[in-house]
User: Fold these one by one.
Assistant:
Number 1:
Amino acid sequence: MKLSKVLFGVLCAANTYVVAAAQAPVIDVSRNNTLSASPLSLVDRLANLERKLDARNRAQINVQRQLDDLQNEVNELRGVTELHTHQLSQVLERQRELYQELDRRVTEALKPVNQVPASIIAPTSDANVNYSSDLPENEAYDRAVNMVLKDKRYEQAIPEFRAFNQKYPQSTYAANAHYWLGQLLFNKNELAEAKVEFDTVVNQYPDSRKRSDAMLKLAMVEQKQNNSVVAISLYKKLILEYPNSSAAQLAQPRLDSLSQ
C-alpha cells in the first residue's frame, strides 16, 4: 500500500515536470539579433536622408543667392546703359545743333564782300533756316543764339528768345526761335511751357527743318509727364514722317521701351 502511494507520487512529479517543460518558451537568439538590428538600420537610413535633404536645401539656397546677385548686377548694368544712352543722345543732339549753326556761319563768311551783306542773303547751301532781309531781326536772333552756343548764358537766353518771338512773330527764324526756347525750358524741367513751344513748331511750321526735332522733344515731354499713349503716338508719327532723320533714330529706342 505504501509502495503504491510512493509510485503514484513519482508519476505525478514526472507528469508535472513534462508539462512545465512543454510550456517553457523557446528563444531564438539569431532571430532576436535580426529584430534588434532592423530598427538601427532604419534610423541610419532616416539620418542619411535628412543629411541629403539638408545638403540639397543648402545647395538650392546658394544657387538662389547667386541668381539674386546676378539679377542685381543685370539691373545695375541696365540702369548704367540707359543713362549712357540718354547722355549720348543729348551729346548727339547738341553736336548736330552746333554743326547746323557752324554751317550757317561758314556760309556767311564765304559770301563775296562786294555783294549784299552776308547776314541778309539766303545761303545757296541747304542750311538750317532762310535768312531775313531785316538786319535788326538777324542781329536779334544771332544775339539770342550766341547766348546759348557761345556764352552759355542759358537763363538770359530765355527772355531773349521770348522777346524775339513777340517782336518778330512772322520771322523766318520763328520756328528755330520757338524750338530753342522750348529746349531751354525743357532743360530747366519747365515741361508745360516747353510743350507749348515744341507744339508751336510741330503744328504751325510744317516745313521747318526743326519740326522733326520738335516732335521728338514734344514726345519726350509727354513721356516725362507720364502720358505714354500720346508719347507713343508722337514717336510713331515722327518715325513715319522722318524715317531717315537723326530724331527718328533717337525716337526708336524710346518707343521700344514704352511698347514693352
Number 2:
Amino acid sequence: MQLYEAVSPLDFRYYGGDETFMKRLLPYVSEAGYVTCQAKVEAALVRTLAKYGVCTAEIADEVEQAVEHVTAEEVYEEQRRIRHNIRSLVNVIRNKISPEARPYVHLFATSADILDTATAIRFKTLIADVIVPDMIALEKQLIALAREHADTPQIGRTHGQHAEPITFGYALSLYVSRLGTRIKKVHEAGQNLRGQFSGAVGAFNGLALIHDNPEKMEADFLELLNLKPSDTHTSTQCVEPEFISDLAYQITAAYTILANFADDMRHLYRTEIAEVGRKYNPQLVGSSTMPHKVNPEAYENIKSLWKAFVPRMQTVFLDSILEHQRDLTNSASSRFLTELVTAFDYAIYRLRKALNEMDVKSENMMHNLEMSAEDTIAEPIYLLMAYYGFPDAYDHTRKLIAQVHQTGKSLSTLLWEDETFQPFLDKLTEPQREALRSPTNYIGASVQRTHATCDEWEKRIDNLMDGFIHQK
C-alpha cells in the first residue's frame, strides 16, 4: 500500500509524513517491531525450558537463531490461513527449525503470555530509548529559554486579563517543572511494565506438572527479557492491566502539559498581544489568500492532535476489564495504544522545532506591561497599606480606582495626593516605593524562582540520566 492510501492521518501526514521522525519510532511502534518482540519472547521461553532441563541448550540456540529470521509478512500470511496470530508465529518458527526442536516452541505458554510480555518489552524499550530522551531534550530547551528570559518583564494574566507583572522566564519555568515531573513519572511507569509465563488461566496449571516452583521458572524467563512478574502472582490469563494503564496515563498527562503550553503560546501570537512569533522564513505560507499571515500552526497542531488522542485514555480503562480469565474484547482496541505514544512523541518533535524558531518579542511584552502599569500598582498599594496597619486598605484602594474613572487622573497621582494614606506612605522603604513607581519593579521573586526551578530540574535530569547509564 502506498503512503497516501493509508486511512489514518497519523500514518500519511504525521508519523509517516516525516521520514526522520518515523525512522526513530519504526522499530518500536510498527507491527513488524511487535512481531519481532513476540518472537524474542518465544525464544526466551525455550531458553528457560533448557535451563530447567526440559530441552537441550542446543535446541534453545537453534530457536534463537530461527527467530532472527521471522518476518511479520510470513506470520500474517500464516494467520490468513489459520486465523490465529500467536499460533501463526509458532508455526513460522517451527518451520525454521528441526523436528527435534519443534515440540518446545510455545510449550506451557498461552497467547497472552507472549503478547503481554512482548507488549511490556516493546513499550519499556520505546520509553527508555526514545520517549524519555526526547522529553529530556525538550526539557533542556525549555530550561535554556527560561534562563534566557528570566528577567524579561511580562504582564501576568488571570482570567485572560492583565493581572500583575512576572517575567517570561518565570512563565516558562512552570512548564519546566510540570514537564520535569512527568519525565520521572513516564520513566518509572515504563520501567515498571511486567511480563508473564503462567499459562491458560494464569495459575501455572501446565508448569506445575513439571516443577514444584513454577513462579521461579517465570521469574527466570522474565529476567532474560529484563522484566519482572507481577508483585504477587494472582492474575488472570493476562498481565494485570494497571501496569500498562499507568504508563498510558502518564503519557496522557505529559501530552496535556504540551497542549497547555502550545495553547499559551498560540494566544501570545495573537495580533493584539504579539509577545511571541516565529522567526521570519520567506518560504513559509500562512494563508492561501492573505500574504501577510504567519500562523502558529505548530502550536495549533499540537493541541489539535491532543484533542484526538487524549480520549484514548478512556479506552485504556475500558480495556482493563476482562471477563473472568480472558476475553477478546480488548484485542483490537488495545492495538491502538502505540498511536497515543506516537502522537505524543510527534508533539514533542513539533514543539522542539517551534521553540527553535520562536521569536520572543520583548519590546511588545514591555508595551503590554506598560498598558496596565497604573492598574497593576493597585495590589501593592493595598498590600503595603494593610501591612503598615491601615484598617481598610482594600476598600480604600478601590475608592481610589473609582476616582480614576471619575476624574481621569492616574492611580499613582491619586495615591500620592491621598491624605488618608499619607501617614502610611511615609513608612515605605525605597524598594517598596520603587514597586509603586514602575511595574517592572513589582515582579516578586520571578527571576530567582526561574533560576531555582531550572537549577533543580537540571540536577534531577542529570540524576535520571545517570540512572539510565547504571541500568544499562
Number 3:
Amino acid sequence: MVKIKNKDGFLRRYIWHEGGRLLLVGLLYLIYRIKVYGKKNLPTDGPVVVLSNHQSFLDPLICQNWRWRPFYYVTRATLFKGFWGLIIDGFYTIPINQEGADLKSMRAIIDILKCGRIVCLYPEGSRTFDGKIAEIKPGFSLLVRRSGATIVPMVMDGIFDRWPRTQKYPKLGGRVGVSYGKPIPADTIKQIGEEAFVRNLNQIMQTMHNDLRQKMGKEPYDYSS
C-alpha cells in the first residue's frame, strides 16, 4: 500500500518503480513501436488526474511511458496476493475494494493528489470489449474537487488489437499510439456540474480516440450511437 509519509519507503518504491518501469517500457517501445502525441499537455507539477481509456493489462505502462513524473494507479485489492501481489505492491498502486464504498482508499487517493502527484484512473470501469471507449462512469469528481487536481484526458489505441480481454496472452508486433489531451482545470466541474462534465468528457475522449486512429492510418470508430 502507499505510504506517502514514509520517506525511506517512498525511496525504495521509487528505485523499484523506475528501474522496472524503464526496462518494461523500453521493451514495449521495441515490440509495439509506441508513438506519443501531446506530451506537453501533461503538467510538470501539481496534482493531476489522468483519465484514460482501458484496452489491456499493459495500459499502466503505456499510459506513463517515458514521462518522468510517477503515475499512481488504483488496483483491485484482490490482486494483492501471492507473488504477483508482491510485484504489484512494489509499484505505485492504491488497493481498492470494488464491492462497496472504500473510503480509506478514497482518502489515500486524495492525500496522494494533495502531495502534488499524478493519479491515473480508468473511468470506463473495465477493459473494453471491442476497442471503443465505453460510457464513462461518474465518481471521480469528488477526488478532483477535494484535491484541486488538473484533469488530463488520455487515449491509447492499438494495444487492444494485440491483447483483447478474451485473449490469454498478448501478441507481439503492431503499433500503439498514445495521446494526452489539453488540461482541464478542476473548477470546470464546479462550474458545469459532474453530469454535464462527464458528457463532455465522453465526447472529448471519443474525438481524441478517432483523431489518434487517423494519425495511425486507421479508420475512425462510429461513436454516433
Number 4:
Amino acid sequence: MIVKNDPKVVNGWAFYDWANSVYNLVITSVVFPKFYLSQTEPIVTFFGREFNNVELYSYVFSASFVIVSLLVPLLSGIADYLGNKKRFMKFFCYLGAAACVSMFFFDKEHLELSMLSPFFASIGFWSSLVFYNSYLPQIATPDQHDRISAKGFSLGYIGSILLLISIIVAIKTIDLGVDANGDSLQHYITRIGFVAVGLWWAGFAQITYKRLPKNVQEKDPEKEKGYIYKGYRELNKVWKELAGQGVLKRFLLSYFIYNMGVQTIMLLAVVFADEEINWPIDELTGEPDKTGLIVSIILIQLVAVVGAFIMSRLSRRIGNIPVIQFAVLIWIGICVSAYFITEPNQFYWLAATVGFVMGGIQSMSRSTYSKMLPETKDHASYFSFFDVLEKVGLIIGPFLFGFVTGYFDGMRNAVIVLGTIFVLGFIALFFVRSSKLQAIED
C-alpha cells in the first residue's frame, strides 16, 4: 500500500518536472525554434512539396500529437492492468531524451529525416507525462494536490532556466570560429545544448524513478488475457462512466478548449516573436539583435513560478474554477495584445503576463481534474483520457496556427484565431459547478 503524502515520494514525483521541463523550455520554447528558423529558408521543401517553414514546424508537432493521442490510451490501460506504469514512463522518457540528443545531427538538406528528432521528442515528452500525472491522486490526498502540483511546475521552471542560461552563456562566450568556407561554427554550441537537454532529462529522472513505487496495484493474471485490447476498453469505460458525471464532463470540455490555446501559444510564441517583432539591429553584425527574446523567455519562466504559487493560494480563497476563469480571461487579453504589438518593450510586458498565467493555469487544471475524479483504481486510464483531450487540442491548435499562417498571410491572423478559442473556453467554464470540489476546498 502507498502511504499518501509521504514527503520522500512526493518530492521524488515533483522532481520529474525538474528533469523534463528542460525539453519544454529549450527544445519547444527557445533554442530549437530559433535554431530551426536560422537553419531553414522561409520556404522549405518537404517530401517534394513546398511549405512555409513555420507552417511545416506546426504540422510536425501536430502530427506528433496524433500519435500520442492514439498510443497513450492503449498503453495507459495496459499499465493500469499490469501495474507497471513506471516502466512505460521510463520508456517514453528515454525515447524523448534520445530524440533530443539526435538533434545534434539536424541537417536542412535532409529535412525529412531531421524533423524526426522533434517529432519523437514530442511523443516521448507528452507520453511520459500521462503516467507521471496519473501518480498524483495515488501519492497525495486531494487537499494537497494544488500545492504539490504547483511545486512540480515550479521545480520545472527553475531547473529549465538553469540549463537554458548555461546554454545561452556557452553560445555567447565560446567562439568556435569559422570553417574553410567562412561559415560560422557557432551552431555546434547550440547542437551540444540539445545533447545536454537529453542527458539532463534522463539523468535527473533517475531520482523520480528511485522514489516512486514500482506497482500501484496488484497484478491480476486474469486481466492479462487480451490486455492489449483492454487498454482501449478502459478508455471506453471511462467515457461511459463520464456519462453520469456531468460536471466532470463539462470541465473536460472547457479544459479541451482553453488548453488548446495555452499549449499552442507555448509551442509557437518564440516563432511568433522571432518573426513579428522589430528587434534592434546589432551594429557589429548588421543582423537583428534578438538577445531580448531570450531574456523575455527567461522572464516568463521566473514569473511562472510566482504565478503558480499565487494561483494556488488564490484558489483556497475563491476556488479552483474562478481562478482558472480569471487566467483564461487574461489569455484572451494576451491574444488581443499580440495582434497589435511590434516593438520589443511591448513584447516584454506581454511575456511577463504570459508567464504569470502559464504556470498557474496548468497547475490548477491538473489539480482540479484530480480532485474531481470519482473513486477508482484506474487512475492511469482517467488521466490518459485527460491527456488525450489535451493532445487532440494540440493537434488542432498548431494545425490551425500553421494553416492560417500559410494560407492567410501571417501569424497575426492566427493569433486572433487563438483568442477566439480562449473566449469559447471562458464561456464553457461558467457551466462547471462541483459540490465535490467545493467540499474539498472548504
